[in-house]
Here is the input.
Amino acid sequence: MGRPRPWLAAVLSMLYPGLGHAYLREWVRSLLWIVLAVGAVALAMPQDPVADASITDPGSIVTASNEMTAGASTVGLAVVVSVFAACVFDAYSLARSNARRQEREAAADYAECPTCGRELDPELEFCHWCTTRLDGESQD
Here is the structure.
């Protein structure tokens, strides 16, 4: 996997909690956020409209979702929104810390020639680009 993009992890988590963590290949964390989100919705939102919805009729699912939201208490909505927002924040901050760690590791492995500025091969005692010896003498 390349360098993780924090904005992408956040957007994926906005679409569905845990999806941004799956993008980051944090499988256990992703599963925990999915379970937490489903649990928050199940406990904080009224479930009566869901029982009446038909899975084959998208209109009834939208209607049931609207009825759930309308029938929810302010505290229930606050709980669900808080869980979703915390998931987005966690995915974003985790992606940022992973990206910073990868940048630090890449910088530690990188050495450049003092003469030409190109990347050096750590196995050689000279720059294979401009043939400058690493002790400062030019190799002609």
